[in-house]
Specification:
The complex is a heterotrimer of chains A (247), B (193) and C (593). Chain A has 247 residues and is an alpha/beta fold. Chain A contains 8 helices and 10 strands. Classes of the chains: A alpha/beta (247), B mainly alpha (193), C alpha+beta (593).
Chain lengths: 247, 193, 593
């Protein structure tokens, strides 16, 4: 058994099945993953390969059929729903493809929500929310409702919200799935910045550009991990070489 | 009037970029006459991190050739002890060349023929698994994309070079998408056998 | 034809997709249609019972009675002769012998009046049997009120003047007031049995039933002594005493009026509350329809097709519910109407007539039409995109509520924000709950009403008063069951509506307990409103239904208990679906978007 004490997130032989008998579907099939502190991992794969399901499992939003899961030194498989909720509040930030912002709250109120749910004082929550909005570059949009924000801005608010309680891990499910190219660049920048600040990230995406911000890129197919590539460290070619302009 | 293609044929081809340097220099001179070093500086600015592709002497060599072809005229200016202080300007023939180039819509070949043929050959000869080759290539491209993207993001906001780097990134992304398709195809081909 | 089929298929598919909601809706409508059916049936019972009985039994316009006194039987024919010849008399029937006898049952011995009849039905005054068969030798038919008071049923054994008789049947008639208005109570026997029971101590008398040309002149016939005018002043003959049907009715009415009132109140309550419930159901249904309209339009539906699909859906549900409701009403109503009939001394009326079914069906169709019209019109007017994107109405923003709620503990925070995002729905919920509270308050008021207590005072016999309280209790129970179902429906609908925001809250770290508490809080706020409004409104409704609120005095303790009772009920009824919902994996809800 590998020593997982240094890792923030450790999953072993995770499995998630739906249906029964002939209609059995293995969305996630024997997946093991270890994410170290400050590491950024991207999971890519064709649609339907189970990567979103995997992310929900990692975040405790779904229960695995089999396997173990450890987050911030706590075992998740047997934890009751209330415990999972508390752990989520403390150690996890989630970014959804559909943003899932609350329509009737403005950007600031959306960002402070996790802090309020964790029991922080409204003043502290408000302060932290303001800081986070500044961090994502939306301090001038603090009073805007989601309907008044573009897709990219909404996702950035969602990212700020995910950071509200200073989580150990941020899980992102297709964060640019609903965004156009320009908005994707904004979110890209943000992820690079988060990574540079030492935030542990697990991102599920089919956009290679987002995947390229990670340290490690894992390819998933039919519920299994089939490939892993290190994107940082190792020999670096020059950009000119990559661009093919070196003659 | 010498056609752009004729000019190209007289040079040993060394990558795509080499052809363009001639046209770019002509175009840059269309605004106003410039020194050689000024032209080089502007090229470097436009290329940003990829300016390394330009080697030092290239600009001057090209300007020389353009002069010989009658598209550019030069005039020595000022101090005799600084031999590279020539001012170059466009001739009417050169101007005509620029117009043609600007209207030219030819595009670098989109067909990744070499890699495609590599896979076909590997499969035919039974020397290697095409899927393996694809995955290998994919990994290399991913690492490259990551790097190019980092370089692009590192550029200041209004940088025009960032645009070029974004182009690198997006084309690598497109290539990766195609590699996905290759993997699917060659996987199925394996199953069929 | 194809379009009809399409309409049908779309409507069915819609219903299948939201099974739980459709089932709840169906349940709600079924209970309201049942209530409406019962209410209407009861109402009919209260509708001039005397006139119905009179018509059904060919009641006499004038009853002429001779004796019983010694010597009355001597020359009956002659004594009645002038009446037979009197002007305005259309027909006569009788004379029939009457007498007194001591009636003993297992528990009680009491004086009874006997009347001898033929086996064949009479021309005038044909008592309507509510149970059993007509007189036969040894078989007695007891007047209904009398039978109830004595607790007699068909087949029981009784003694008349020591002779054994069997209770052959129970009947009502308007030839005399019902027991205990007319005392002693009446027993019909064969002529032979009646004469056999007579003795010198209890001689026979005679009775003659008259029908007049103009029934409305019966009173003047009686008052004007028109009959006795035919008798020679100096004659020694005993003059028969006359009673007009109006007389009898008036006396009956003293008691009937009370019963009528009770039944009328109850039936009106049921009908009003049923209609109010339907209105709330329709209101909540309308809110969901807008998005459906948008979808239909987006796939190319013309406004007509859209309206057709909505109508088909609503009609399906409404008619299905009506059918079930009427069926249940058919089963339940007879119990209540029989009680009612007995109270009013009228013959059994078929509880659910074709007209009442038609009435309920019409209401159902109107409801379906109303529930269709508004969203269809709105859908036709708004753009398709807006209808698609707007879930009914987008949640409104209330800044002060939001900033205020930040200071509250998590459960209250969630509750307040849940209410704030859909104020209209919360108000609808409050309306629904208010109706439920009104039902409970009305039931309480009825139980303790003076009307009910008055009746006991008027009659003075506990058995009959017992039947009234029986009826009242049953009806109160129905009201309370309705109230509970109402509450379940609204809370469940709210929980379903709040699925997305609560799933998000859970993803962000709210525990199931906090979610449940939040939902309960969200429901408690309209609950408090409902409790406070429901009490005065319930009393007012009782007044509108015909009761006297000032005279009724439900114990203040009971009324005071309504408020905490309501709140506890709301909390519990919310906690159950909330808890069930909290078990559903968050991913399911968020992914289905």
């Amino acid at each position: 058994m590998t020593d997982t004490s240094g890792s923030v997130l450790a999953a072993s032989a995770l499995r998630k099945e739906y249906g029964k008998g002939a209609a059995l579907v293995r969305a996630v099939d024997d997946v093991s993953l270890e994410v170290a502190q400050g590491e950024s991992v991207a999971i890519v794969g064709p649609s339907g390969c189970g990567k979103s399901t995997l992310l929900y499992l990692l975040g405790g939003l779904e229960r695995p059929t089999a396997g173990t899961l450890q987050l911030a030194q706590r075992q998740l498989e047997q934890m009751p729903e209330a415990g999972l909720a508390r752990l989520r509040r403390r150690a996890l930030g989630f970014v959804f493809q559909a943003f899932h912002l609350v329509d009737e709250l403005n950007a600031l109120e959306n960002v402070e929500l996790p802090a309020l749910l964790a029991g922080a004082s409204p003043r502290k929550a408000r302060e932290r929310a303001t800081d986070l909005l500044e961090q994502v570059g939306l301090e001038d949009r603090a009073e805007h409702l989601p309907s008044a924000l573009s897709g990219g801005q909404r996702q950035r608010v969602a990212i700020a919200r995910a950071l509200a309680n200073g989580p150990a891990v941020v899980l992102a499910d297709e964060p640019t799935g609903n965004l156009d190219s320009a908005a994707t660049t904004d979110v890209l920048r943000l992820f690079e910045q988060l990574h540079a600040d030492g935030q542990t990230l697990v991102v599920v995406t089919h956009d290679e550009r987002i995947a390229a911000t990670a340290d490690r890129l894992i390819t998933m197919r039919d519920g299994r991990f089939v490939d892993e590539t290190k994107l940082t460290g190792g020999t670096q070619r020059t950009v000119t070489e990559i661009a093919g302009l070196d003659g | 009037m010498p056609q752009p293609s004729e000019l190209r044929d007289t040079e040993p081809l060394n990558g795509y970029q080499l052809r363009v340097v001639r046209e770019v220099l002509l175009a840059l001179l269309a605004a106003e006459p410039s020194h050689g070093y000024q032209l080089r500086a502007r090229l470097a600015l436009a290329l940003g991190p990829l300016a390394g592709a330009l080697n030092d002497g290239q600009v001057y060599v090209t300007l020389n050739r353009l002069e010989k072809a009658g598209l550019v005229a030069s005039e020595r200016v000022g101090q005799a002890d600084k031999p590279d202080r020539r001012v170059y300007e466009l001739t009417p023939a050169g101007r005509h060349q620029v117009t043609d180039w600007l209207e030219d819509t030819s595009w670098p070949k989109p067909a990744p023929a070499e890699f495609h043929l590599k896979l076909v050959a590997a499969a035919a000869a039974g020397l290697a698994d095409p899927v393996g080759i694809v995955n290998q290539q994919r990994r290399a491209l991913l690492v490259g994309l990551a790097q190019a993207q980092r370089a692009a993001l590192a550029e200041p906001d209004a940088s025009v070079a960032a645009l070029l780097l974004e182009g690198v990134v997006l084309r690598l992304q497109a290539d990766l998408r195609w590699l996905e398709a290759c993997a699917r195809y060659w996987n199925k081909a394996k199953e069929r056998r | 034809m194809g379009r009809l089929l399409l309409t049908w298929r779309l409507a069915i598919r819609d219903i299948k997709r939201r099974r739980v909601q459709a089932a709840l809706l169906l349940l709600m409508i079924v209970t309201t249609t049942t209530t409406l059916t019962i209410g209407l049936a009861l109402h009919k019972v209260t509708d001039s019972p005397f006139a119905r009985t009179r018509a059904a039994t060919m009641g006499p316009d004038i009853v002429a009675e001779l004796g019983p006194t010694p010597g009355a039987s001597r020359d009956v024919a002659r004594q009645f002769a002038p009446l037979l010849r009197a002007p305005g008399v259309a027909a006569t029937d009788g004379p029939y012998p009457i007498g007194f006898a001591r009636l003993t049952t297992r528990h009680i011995g009491v004086l009874a009046e006997t009347e001898g009849r033929d086996a064949a039905p009479a021309v005038i005054d044909r008592p309507a049997l509510t149970a059993g068969r007509w007189v036969s030798p040894g078989g007695a038919v007891i007047e209904r009120g009398f039978a109830d008071a004595l607790g007699l049923h068909v087949g029981n054994r009784i003694d008349l003047n020591g002779r054994a008789f069997r209770v052959a049947g129970i009947a009502v008639s308007t030839a005399q007031c019902f027991y205990p208005v007319s005392s002693p109570g009446l027993v019909w026997l064969t002529r032979g049995d009646t004469e056999a029971l007579a003795s010198s101590a209890q001689p026979l008398g005679y009775i003659l039933n008259l029908k007049l040309d103009d029934p409305s002149s019966a009173e003047s016939f009686e008052n004007g002594n028109a009959g006795t005018a035919f008798y020679n002043a100096g004659s020694n003959d005993t003059k028969p005493s006359l009673s007009s049907w109006q007389d009898i009715q008036r006396q009956d009415f003293k008691v009937i009026s009370v019963d009528q009132k009770v039944l009328l109140i109850v039936s009106t309550l049921l009908a009003l509350l049923a209609i109010a419930s339907i209105a709330v159901v329709v209101g909540s249904r309308m809110a969901e329809q807008t998005r459906r309209v948008g979808l239909l339009k987006a796939v190319g539906g013309t406004p007509l097709l859209v309206a057709a699909v909505l109508l088909a859906e609503n009609l399906l549900l409404a008619l299905a519910a009506t059918a079930v409701g009427v069926a249940i009403g058919q089963l339940v109503a007879p119990v209540l109407t029989n009680l009612g009939n007995g109270l009013l001394g009228s013959p059994p009326t078929p509880p659910v007539t074709v007209t009442s079914v038609a009435e309920v069906v019409i209401v159902a169709i109107l409801v379906a039409a109303c529930a269709t019209v508004v969203p269809a019109i709105r859908g036709a007017r708004t753009s398709t995109i807006r209808a698609l994107n707007d879930p009914a109405h987008p949640p409104r923003r209330r800044p002060w509520l939001i900033s205020m709620s930040a200071w509250l503990p998590v459960a209250l925070l969630l509750g307040v924000r849940l209410v704030a995002r859909r104020v209209r729905r919360s108000l609808l919920t409050a309306a629904s709950m208010t109706i439920a509270v009104m039902m409970v308050v009305a039931a309480l008021t009825l139980e303790h009403s003076d009307e009910v207590r008055n009746r006991a005072a008027v009659i003075g016999t506990t058995t009959v008063a017992g039947r009234v309280t029986h009826l009242v209790f049953l009806l109160s129970a129905i009201l309370i069951v309705l109230a509970a179902l109402n509450a379940i429906f609204t809370t469940w609908a709210t929980v379903i509506d709040a699925q997305r925001p609560t799933a998000l809250a859970r993803a962000l770290g709210a525990t199931p307990r906090q979610i449940t508490a939040g939902l309960a809080t969200a429901q408690l706020m309209p609950g408090v409103l409902a409790a406070c409004l429901g009490i005065p409104l319930g009393l007012a409704l009782y007044g509108v239904a015909g009761g006297h609120v000032e005279q009724a005095s439900p114990p203040l303790l009971w009324l005071a208990a309504v408020i905490p009772g309501t709140l506890i009920a709301v909390a519990v009824l919310t906690a159950i679906p909330a808890r069930i919902g909290a078990r559903r994996p968050v991913a399911d809800v968020l992914r289905s978007d």
